[in-house]
Amino acid sequence: MEGTTWAALTAALTVAGAIWTWIAFRRRGAANGLRAMGFTLLPAAAWLTGTLEMVTEIAGSVTDWATTLVFDVRTWVGVGLAGLAVVLWFVSGIIRDRQLARAQAAGVGRTSGGRDALPEASSTRTGPTSRPAVDDEMADIEALLRKRGIE
After folding, report:
1. Distance CA 33, CA 31 (A)
2. Whose CA is closest to 138, among 75, 106, 36, 146?
3. Average pLDDT per run of 10 along the chain, which is 151 residues long?
4. Res 52: pLDDT
5. Cα separation, 125 vs 136, whole angstroms
6. What is the pLDDT of residue 127?
7. What is the DSSP track for 87-107?
8. What is the CA radius of gyration of the chain?
């Protein structure tokens, strides 16, 4: 676009903003009117600094990208692969948590100390359920509750 076109666009946006500002002052008061005036001045500031053209170029680039996204099979395969990667990452975390929980419940753990070593279950066991106690205070509380018949 040429400079005249940019000036006309700026003028149109500023006039529309001025109408909005007048309505905001009349109906909603000074605070909203001043806020509207701030927004009204933005197109003129963007035109004078040259960022109005930049914003339209960015919007055009995003539009081009979106249209190629919609109509390009290769892009959709990439989006599908990215989605599959995220799903696999979440599923692996869930499986890992279940493995750790089973290992703690069974009291089994590897002692290799490597990266994949499972933490050993606590040796403090109380009652017939033989669940690992978190700490000594919790073990005392659980024993007191069992003694009173509350589980």
Report:
1. 5
2. 146
3. 87 94 92 92 91 89 85 84 95 92 76 51 53 71 84 69
4. 84
5. 10
6. 54
7. HHHHHHHHHHHHHHHHHHHHT
8. 33
Same domain, 65 and 83: no
- How far is Cα of residue 77 from the mean position of the Cα atoms in its chain? 23
Number of domains the chain is built from = 2
Alpha carbons 150 and 29: distance in angstroms, whole number: 63
State the pTM of this model.
0.41
Is the Cα dihedral 81, 84, 86, 89 positive or negative? negative
Q: Which residues contact 69 (CB under 8 A, 6 or more apart)?
A: 75, 76, 79
Which runs of consecutive H residues, i.e. helices, occur in the chain? 3-28, 30-49, 51-71, 73-106, 136-147
Q: What are the structure tokens assigned to 67, written together?
A: 């249209």
Closest CA to 68 of 76, 57, 58: 76
Token pair 């509750």 is at which residue? Answer: 145
Domain end position, chosen among 13, 43, 71: 71
- Domain that includes residue 82, residue range: 76-147
Secondary structure of residue 108 in the 3-state scheme: coil
Last residue of a domain, one of 50, 71, 92: 71
Q: Which residues is 125 bridged to in the sheet?
A: 132
